[in-house]
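TL;DR need structure tokens for one chain.
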Amino acid sequence: MLPVNQNTIIQLIPATQYTFEQLADIYNQTRIDYMVPMPMNATRLAEYVTTYDVSLEHSLVAKLANGEMLGVIMLGMRKGRVWVTRLGVIPNNRRLGIGKTLMNGLLEQTQKLSINFCMLEVIKNNIPAHQMFLKFGFREVGELLVLRHSPLSTKHISLPANIQSFDKSQALTYLNNHQLTQAWTNQYESFLNSNEVSGLYATLEDGSRGWMVYQRQKFLLSRFVFNTEAGDPVKVASALLTHLHQQYPRLDTHVENIHSHDPHLPAFYQAGYIEAFRRIEMWHGEFTG
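>> reply
TL;DR here they are.
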């Protein structure tokens, strides 16, 4: 192992030069002591790349001349916007500017692509990463909640409602017409790239009505988006969540990146959801569509 210091030459290599097994190994090394463990294997990483439109061609691995890996950063690409994700530096090499070098390399890629709007999330209280992003000109736009619901939860709210199910095709239509800016993981394209996507539409006795889109995996419910078309958002979300958990009583639920100002949020707590942690959403530039 070569000693790494601020004068060491760091090479940035396109992630396409590595297998998913190698990338997963590098990523997991960067997360050994992470405040929220997020281990990945090659299969999960490949699915992540597909679901979130990650361009391995524009993602980077930092290494030394002898081949020693230092860190990784990935770039999601969609029309008019990009997303910084999976940035990590192996613990022994932190505080030496490697994260800054990776960010510089990635932002150079976005400039070459003529994309001026960049999104990212950083776990709340990850002060070093948060401060680095601020120095790069990113600004805070809100907080995102990660919520979990156990099938053992006994909280149920009874709201008389007419609930109708719809398939992925209809779900994509609703999402495509939904103008609220979602976090990258919950955008239209993320659902388009995913399997087992469905939705529910609720009409309540007081005239409140709205829909939710979700993903049902083998053992897990995830990726929720709500929209209330009329009436009380909390009542609409409560009716939808109650029906969903009655439909899948044995499934765990892991919902990521719900905006802290989402008007449907109180319904989650009423249904027994627990906050796992928060992320800070940050943007650079302006989205022009």
